[in-house]
């Protein structure tokens, strides 16, 4: 049984995992936190997501002590941690992550983990979050009814089964998927909606930059449609840079397809083809 | 004081106006309904939105009897009703509407209304609705805290003041705006988000049409981001055809601008320009 979990990255997701471990999964071991930004780990400790915090300068020593390492940072730092942890961990220990893209992470981990004498790595991705980050917004219930994807790259181990059981106790719906398919599907359901919201919000800002009365009208008149399609425009670059860097081709393909679809719609605003577009769209139902 | 309101079009908006008149504005006169689809007016009567329903075949006689005529249909039928009502109404009566675009409506009404001996016309547009229509979804509270725009084209009259007071009693925030500016701003805050949702939902349907497992993954993995950016994809063509027909140039301009912005973002997924896009988008705040 795991007696110590180390969460590397104590922002919204990392701190919510700490809260869920302690409040939903009845994990009785020790939950330790580390964050490059000491204010985040201090906040996570304050809200009860952690039992103990390692100093930012402790990172060199962090690897040696836990049964389960949860990498809860953006994707590029996850890649760094994978490289740094591999040489100092051993069989029986588990590294798992919450990274938003999986193909690059899995390709790297496949070389460094899961072999004889090595720690296990279970790639994960909880489909949960908020448009703003930080431990201050963490909630134990963040993962309830959310899908928590795993993209396993090796045979299951006992410690991996323990982590899966903990995640299930968070209230998440666990689903396994191939890493390449993960990145393709996430481009459609997550990365494209994000880029769309960012583009629309940025376009509105620039369009009305020299027209404060127009922007005031936009803000006064805009309702739920505008709010929902621009909400993600508030998302932080820091996280999305890594997603764009590690899923570029899939995101570019979905963007190009949408550009072409918008052009088609624009050229048919007054033709019967508009009916076909609405009719096709009417057949789509997102998970409610 | 108005003693009789005739609502032409008894779908979601028309029936909600009936409910709001009777339950929120304490309107003590008679609320009469007419709809080209008798099932809609029957449903509106059933839920208490109307006191009386004119038969669909009564439409030739409907014009003679009310103080206030509320045109609660899509835009093209509103244009038809404006032409049919003008010759049979007289000074002291008010026609108002809820049409989603205003420039064409105002241009037509300016020739037929508001002159000596003619009925008054007050163009209106409540920024409220749902992605599905019909009297069955009507609510008295639909307009509470929503913005109700007017685009007046003539000097105010006493009967117009009465209608404004009733709308205020619905809980709506009344705001006057120029008809041309209305259509330009609504292209940004309403029509563009709609076309975007329609394009994205239609694209997903076509992309995964031959890949049921992929569509199942999209539905299972998609969360709030996908749900919010595709919600309006369920909107009916019947209403949007008229909006696209009567605000074509503004909608095409916003679509083209967004296509270009998405292309720019796509070409900069791995450059520092992505940071600029996120930073600019972060400055946008829709009304919460």
TrEMBL record, chains A, B:
**Which UniProt keywords are present, listed alphabetically?**
Oxidoreductase
Q: Which GO terms describe its molecular function?
A: NAD+ binding; prephenate dehydrogenase (NAD+) activity; prephenate dehydrogenase (NADP+) activity
Residues forming the Prephenate/arogenate dehydrogenase domain are 3-288
Q: Which organism is it from?
A: Bryocella elongata
Gene3D superfamilies this protein is in? 6-phosphogluconate dehydrogenase C-terminal like domain, NAD(P)-binding Rossmann-like Domain
Query: Which Pfam family, any one, appears in the UniProt record?
Result: PDH_C
What is the recorded name of this protein?
A: Prephenate dehydrogenase
Q: Which InterPro entries match?
A: 6-PGluconate_DH-like_C_sf, NAD(P)-bd_dom_sf, PDH_C, PDH_N, Preph/Arog_dehydrog, Prephen_DH
GO BP terms in the entry: tyrosine biosynthetic process
| Superkingdom of this protein's organism | Bacteria
């Amino acid at each position: 049984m795991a007696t110590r979990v180390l969460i590397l990255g104590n922002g919204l997701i990392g701190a919510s995992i700490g809260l869920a471990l302690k409040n939903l999964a009845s994990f009785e071991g020790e939950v330790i936190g580390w964050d490059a930004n000491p204010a985040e780990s201090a906040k996570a400790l304050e809200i009860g997501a952690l039992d103990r915090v390692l100093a930012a300068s402790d990172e060199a020593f962090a690897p040696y002590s836990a049964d389960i390492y949860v990498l809860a940072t953006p994707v590029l730092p996850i890649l760094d941690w994978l490289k740094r942890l591999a040489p100092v961990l051993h069989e029986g220990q588990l590294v798992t992550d919450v990274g938003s893209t999986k193909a690059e992470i899995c390709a790297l981990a496949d070389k460094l983990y899961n072999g004889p004498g090595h720690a296990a790595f279970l790639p994960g991705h909880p489909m949960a979050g908020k448009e703003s980050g930080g431990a201050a917004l963490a909630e134990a219930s963040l993962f309830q009814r959310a899908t928590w994807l795993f993209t396993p790259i090796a045979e299951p181990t006992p410690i991996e089964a323990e982590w899966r059981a903990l995640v299930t106790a968070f209230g998440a719906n666990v689903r396994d998927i191939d890493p390449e398919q993960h990145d393709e599907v996430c481009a459609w359901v997550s990365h494209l909606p994000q880029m769309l919201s960012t583009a629309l919000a940025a376009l509105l800002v620039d369009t009305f930059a020299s027209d404060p009365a127009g922007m005031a009208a936009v803000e006064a008149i805009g309702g739920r449609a505008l709010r929902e399609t621009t909400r993600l425009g508030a998302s932080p670059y820091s996280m999305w840079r890594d997603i764009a860097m590690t899923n570029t081709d899939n995101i570019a393909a979905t963007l190009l397809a949408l550009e072409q679809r918008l052009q088609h719609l624009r050229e048919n605003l007054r033709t019967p083809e508009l009916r076909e577009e609405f009719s096709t769209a009417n057949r789509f139902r997102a998970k409610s």
